[in-house]
Amino acid sequence: MSEEIITNGPHKGFEEIKEIDENGIEFWMARRLFPLLGYSRWETFDDVILRSAKAALNSGQIVGDHFRQLTKLVDIGSSGKRAVKDWKLDRYACYLIAQNGDSRIPQIAVAQTYFAIQTRRQEIFDRLPEEEKRLFVREEVTNENKKLFRTAKEAGVSHFGLFNDAGYKGLYGIPLREIESKKGIKKGELLDRAGASELAANLFRITQTDDKIKLDGIKGDVAAQRTHNMIGGKVRQTIKDIGGILPENRKPERHIKEIKKEKKLLAKQAKRIGMLQNS
Fold this sequence. Notes:
Distance between the termini: 27 Å
Strand content: 5-15%
Number of domains: 2
Order of helices and strands: HEEHHEEHHHHHHHH
Structural class: alpha+beta
Number of helices: 11
């Protein structure tokens, strides 16, 4: 790809409070977001949200698609409750909020980096045809898996096969061996035969497990396996909740190596044609 995407950067806090709705869309609740952005007063942050919503309107956006105002009840003691204002914000809304925030606050700079990267990544991803998406996400999975296994090693994991299988059991509901048998694929082919959606589910499993081990200071084989299995199960439950296709029921795709081979061949042919046209 000619457009490079920087994948490193601040993300832990924002990833921890990110939620996914029934349509599979990422969102953040403003009441949980504003402390991460360095604001101490809700009223000040609410003003930033209103300015950002106005910026979205001025850009020709449908504000309600990105900024959804909510009212919820909170406990105030003695069994009493009070209605408070909140916002459901998608990634684009958060990006605008970061851009419209107080640039003197260090956390705002962090948020600007994070949401700019995430928004740019999604823009590029949405433009890709299905096979390009597979190549893109497969590369992400490879890179993030390397990070996870480094994290696991530092956490004292020694049985990496069991650790890996625990994550698959959580996400697919069955061990890796049974997944391969169910899909009729060879040993070690699962991720190379997975479609973009299945790869994305695995990518979320991997990144969230990596974060959880680091944030909670998890140590040892048993605790790490339990964590990996739990995160995989959470991703599986989200797929169920939105009525998606469970990963074990998705049909295997062409091997990723075949797509890479075809891309190289097409690139060579295009280069040869270009040379002939210029001769």
